Amino acid sequence: MKPEDKAQRDGQAAAGIDRIIHEPARLLILTHLYVVTEADFVFLERQTGLTRGNLSSHLSRLEEGGYVTVAKKFVERVPRTVLRLTDNGREAFSAYRDTIRAVLSTKGKQG
Known about the structure:
Elements (H helix, E strand, L loop, with lengths): L2 H13 L3 H4 L1 H11 L4 E2 H8 L3 H13 L3 E8 L2 E8 L1 H22 L3
Helix pairs in contact: 1-6
């Protein structure tokens, strides 16, 4: 295969990357939410190391994209923000992983 054909194939694989997920902070958030049923805001804040404002901003973007749900609850009169990955978010995250694997596998075959 000619080098320009490889470059085009690599570019096509990379073009399939979900830009909402690909941002490092959002990827970190989704990675944590992928392995749990739900998480509260404080848990994610501690696990990701993001500031409250930064975490809130990224969660808003993920919620707008339909990847997470944000629910406000009270537990013993204390407000609690609970986050869940939606079915669409779970599917998008799986597709993102597959796309990244494909891109990395294509890059590894160059040579």
